[in-house]
Amino acid sequence: MLLGIRxxxxxxxxALTLLASLLCGTAASAVPLPTLTRxxxxxxxxxxxxxxxxxxxxxxxxxxxxxxxxETPDLFVQDSTAGIWVHLPKxxxxxxxxxxxxxxxxxxxxxxxxxxxxxxxxxxxxxPLPRAKPVSFETMxxxxxxxxxxxxxxxxxxxxxxxxxxxxDVAVAGGRLMAEVGELQQPVPPLEDAEVRIRGACGAxxxxxxxxxxxxxxxxxxxxxxxxRPAVDPFTQPVHPIDSVARFAPQRAMGHRxxxxxxxxxxxxxxxxxxxxxxxxxxxxxxAPGAFQPGDRLDVAGFPRVSDYSVTMExxxxxxxxxxxxxxxxxxxxxxxxxxxxDSLPISIEGRLLEKSGWGGNETLVLESGRVVFDxxxxxxxxxxxxDSVPTDSLVRVAxxxxxxxxxxxxxxxxxxxxxxPHDLTVIRRPPWWTVRRLxxxxxxxxxxxxxxxxxxxxxxxxxxxxxxxHNLVENANDIIFTVGPHQNLTSLNKAGERIxxxxxxxxxxxxxAHLLPSVWSGKIAELASDASRGQPFPVQEWEFVAKDNSRTxxxxxLQAIRKRGRPAGxxxxxxxxSERKRAEDELLRAKDAAEAANRAKxxxxxxxxxxxxxxxxxxxxxxEMLEELxxxxxxxxxxxxxxRIHGAGRHLLDLINDVLDLSKIEAGKVQLCIDxxxxxxxxxDVVGTIQPLVEKNVNRLEVACQQDLGEMAADQTRTRQxxxxxxxxxxxxxxxxxxxxxxxxxxxxxxxxxxxxxADTGIGMSAEQIAKLYHPFTQADAxxxxxxxxxxxxxxxxxRICRLMGGSLSVESQLGRGSVFTVRLPVGSLADGEEKAAxxxxxxxxx
Length: 848
Hints:
The chain is of the alpha+beta class. It is built from 18 helices and 38 strands.
């Protein structure tokens, strides 16, 4: 049985504010989890949140501690807001109730409810136990007070010492609960039937499906059990007549023990006994097993309980007074039994035996009296061969205890009889050999034989119909269907085979399979066909069939062994003409070669044109700069705006040409990566300083958060700076009056060590459809983005391919209207320092 604790409380305002902040979903993976300082904050977590392992630092008083549990010690603590269970290791230092602890650990939820795991604690003093809160059983079942210091009142039904723990079974208003007392430093007083007030930590008893099935109070010591009404010797109480006990109303009674006396009528288990005085009867469930015989007069003290409209004395103590003759069973009829005259009394009744069966620990007889069917059962431990010798349909008399079964209106619907031994069954009359039942069986066998004959005729007709249908399917199929005998000669060939191969049925009969194959294939295929005939797997293969006129037809062949009486008898083959598919494959290959040639020509053209365009464009940019200086020196300020426009347009066109050149180099496999070792923080600071004017242009704020020990990495420093600058410039361009954040961390996992850079902005964001085409060259989110913000759509495509060439990755997370987060991950260690790497346009690098 598993034990767990669950508490639901309303947090104070400050705790709710802290909880809301720590549960906020934005950038949760990058922000350390906050430390919880109140137990109520832990109890308010969901299962997913508690499993994240929030750090905990609380101060609380010990309300219960016991190291005697089978798995780990039980420790309950409580502060001013709530209580909780602490998951101690087996060898943890002991503590005591009333000690004040400072506990550090993490949240966890291995089973039923949040708890404190991996605890580190120290005793900082002592404190009084919390003020116990009186609660009802229904409140405890609601789990609102789970693991809290509570108080309840009830009557002790049982008290046992198990593994050094005192366990109490307590009946309270509304139900029953268990109480475990951890420390027994004083003698245990008699508690059975005592009315007590108990204070302890409220715990939950739950099953493997994490469902609450009961309540356990964890009581630190006997001082927390206050006896309101002491227990008394049950056998000093006055004896109640059995008739008065049997008149209890159908409601749940939770009072004290009462004393009754009666004669044993049946004992169906070591702790289950039926008593009667000849007029009334009831069941006794004893706390200790015993052996009694019918006729023993017992003195019984127990707790009465009425369930299913029958009386039971629970948790009873029994002692034998004297021995007398057993009570004589009362002859009864079905009508009187269903009227409720003989509940729990010994009766005898006649009936016809319908069936015998064994179920569980009982041997059950099904009998019929009039139109009513009832059961008579006896323990299988007392079973004898006598029952096996009694045939069905016999008229018998059974004697035993009558147990009525009622509906919710207290109307008798059925009954059963409990027998003490098999000898409580008496055979009055055995059935004749030729009975109606056997006649019906004989007629049934004859009818079955006739039906089987008709079924055989129908099966033969259906078999012939199926054979004709399959023959038509084979003959009219478009595929070649043939059979081969043990010597690899054709035994049949359908019309499609005759049409494609040009053989008549007479010519195809007994034609060797090798005659249909090219000479270079015949030997190998003959070996494969032989293996297939022996039952070995034959994968689908491509052959060539040689027709009668020596023309060749490519086919796709599957073979399956034919067996007769478990022995190989030949092969069934299906060959599909794949001439059209072969022609289509050839055309597709030619088209693929042409497309690849066109793509290579396009790439080389772009590379050559970019080089040719940059030479005169550099001259235009240089002359515009010289003219700006000359106009400034001569005081011709009216010419400066036009010259600056020429210079800006030239720079923009040069950037576009450089992007096209980079893309064409990557696709052509001509990019040379210069790998050297450099400090990551220095490159980031350089890029941040360069990008600052773009940040201020749209009135944005740039935040930089770099890990202290970023160290060095081996990569192409220029290309790394190009990727970071591109991401930051995009963030500046698509964000206005917002925040741009750059974070750099060092990550290590099973794949290696990485430097991870995240660029987050609060700009316009992207939808899922826009993200899908984000890395396509010359493509932006949509036409409105190009018109408003400009650009060519090459930057992210080049950046992603550069990251892949350096062994890293570039990914994005974005929501429309809520900004974007781009993540660059590059390996810390790459090629040797100073080694150049010629990047080839792999399929992954050219993807998209």
